[in-house]
Design a protein that fits this description.
Strand content of chain A: 15-25%
Distance between the termini of chain A: 50 Å
Distance between the termini of chain B: 72 Å
Radius of gyration of chain A: 23 Å
Number of helices of chain B: 11
Strand content of chain B: 15-25%
Number of strands of chain A: 20
Oligomer: heterodimer
Structural class of chain B: alpha/beta
Shape of chain A: globular
Strand order of the largest sheet of chain B: 7-6-5-8-9
Amino acid sequence: MTLTRKPETRPATASWGLAAGGAPWEYAPAPEATDHIRIEPEYGLFIGNRFAPSKPRKTFTVINPATEEPLAKVAHASRADVNRAVTAAREAHRSSWSKLSGRERAKYLYRIARILQERSREFAVVETLNSGKPIKESRDVDVPLAAAHFFYYAGWADKLDYAFPNREPRSLGVAAQIIPWNFPLLMLAWKIAPALAAGNTVVLKPASTTPLTAYLFADVVLQADLPPGVVNIITGPGEIGMELVRHPDVRKVAFTGSTAVGKMIARAVAGTDKKLTLELGGKAANIVFDDAPLDQAIEGIINGIYFNQGEVCCAGSRLFVQESVHEALIDKLKARLGTLRVGDPLDKNTDVGAINSAGQLAKVQELVQSGIDEGAEIFQPDCELPERGFFFRPTLFTGVSQSHRIAQEEIFGPVLSVLTFRTPEEAIEKANNTPYGLSAGVWTEKGSRIFKMIAGMKAGVVWANTFNRFDPTSPFGGYKESGYGREGGIHGLAAYLDVSGDGAHTR
Amino acid sequence: MASRRPTVAARRAPRASVLSPPKQQPLATTNGAKGRTERIEVRKTYKLYIGGAFPRTESGRAYEILDARGRFVANASRGTRKDIRDAVRAARGVQAEWASKTAYNRSQILYRIAELMEGRRDQFVSEVSAAEGTGRARSARLVDAAIDRWVWYAGWADKFPQMVGTVNPVAGSYFNFSVPEPTGVVGIIAPEASSLLGLVSRLAPVVVSGNAAVVIASESRPLPAVTLSEVLATSDVPGGVVNLITGLRRELIGHLAAHMDVNALDAFGAEPGESRALEEVSVENVKRFVRPPRSGLDRYDWLSERAQSPYLIGDFVEIKTVWHPIGA
């Protein structure tokens, strides 16, 4: 990593590399090498350990959102392909996977974890090329966490009886798993690792804009010698996902994505025996009290909303600041925003990469415009954006009221809405004033207040004096319209097992 | 309601007395009248239970309850959508307070329910006999099991969080733990046949963790449930924690499933044929939903150990995970 400081602009004392009115440090380009990776011109569906074109043969093009250039063509699955994939998974469950002891399943999962570690840089680069996320995030967060997830759940495969005392947990069968484009490989790991550990087989449908690391993962499946049909990967638009959800041989549906689609899926499984877990949208409150360590909080706020371009379901998109520190905090926040480096996701110094698609960029732009129209005050740093690609400046709104769309709707972009409060009770009331309940943050040095806030906030994950931390041992999932079921930890196993004892409780 | 009217033969049967046969007692002569006269039983009005009070339904309507042999027993309130809304409001209003009581306190209150049911044991046995057509011995077993079920769940209040709560060893310098919290307001469609034990088996695991409940009682056998609500009202259970609506299920269950301020629906007691529609409307606010057994409840054994489980408590809790850095 090269860091070039220009002596004439180097600040003497300012904390963010900014002299008053000065320019930030300049960085020389530090692009991650791409010569060691190989992206095929075309990817077929991965069914029964074989890549094969869809029937009828049909493809769609996947692009790099940072350049808008095509990366590869991938198969567009048909209804018949869905059926083939589910059948392969069902047969694999019947003939091999469910008969394998937990101890042996575990070894396969450990193998996958190891191979992901071995090929980590390759995965990070492909992830960044396909998703637009900064290489430092795919390299330091997505890929290591994905490997860790397989490693963690590998160890559960032969210990399920200890997780559910008195229950003789049994695998369900075929799990249909539909994942979003914001963390393509990590969401794959969150879905596949516990499913396989519990003895299920899977048909996974990655998001149509980000299938490449999933197909790269198929190669890991081959390297690990998994029995054919245990992991199947199909690509296509949302309708193909719905076909998968509706397939009668599917016994479990796991979905991560928008609340609107989650509701469609929940309706589709109504009246069936299919188990369902949903990890849906969020509009997290990040609450800063006047006694919080402000510089530390600033980093948490930045990480909370600009991590992964804000394309994070648990992003801290509503910032609640106690009135007495509002001004000081906003000044610091604006200064810090000015140091964020927006641009080439492959550059190791990039903080904010490309928005994943033109459609998502348009949605962000539309909601930001609504914020302006509804009277909130916008701030954006004066940074240059690349000429091509789907980029958006990190954005801050002050003067936001609870009723503004930017305070109510999930933007899924690098846009922070700032509101204020006076008392802890008011903060809790405002934080909970949303149909969502995925995550929340609180910043204060007072321990008893932290616990009061934790208890009061209806959210599945609460970060206190930190934000956006993830770990395979740590359950993740929402309250209210952010979904149900948990991923991660011992709690994440329940979603993939029949623990009813008598089959009475099927969801 | 014409279809629900008892047969003519049933109507000619004695109108009182199914629950507690009046005793012939000599009375003092009054106003110079001579002889012995029968004491007229003081009957109970069966009402709804909302927010700790016993209102009649806002509809002002009632429907006839017959015993297992088709004889008239009482008029029950024919609750409405408005009653459900009132009940949900009452439940929402008190849920946080109920959840914030210490687990020890909630445990004692559930145990108190058992104590007071024990005191009314004979009444419950009579009502269950009349409703379910079971003999006294069988009815007594069902009532005893219902009482014991409260005791069993009372014990879980301060143990369940230790069973499902975890400290998570994350790979970093953070303290991380997960705890169960009540889901909020839970709708319960009580089993139609098992008038008391079935209801208690579904209600106790919902409220023990701190949820508030809105129950739609058995349509044809609601009276033991109403009597249970009278026990609840005097058991230190805060008003609104349990709300009980009687009436025609088809007029009620859809509204409960669709209510936007109900967080979860226990449809275990619903008919399998009703389940899909209930599940579909419950999606609107992403309700947690417990389905009925596919084969129905006809052969479900409410007396079995399987009918009580900490996993049932788990169906109506959320897992909250907390991170905090470790540092000086």
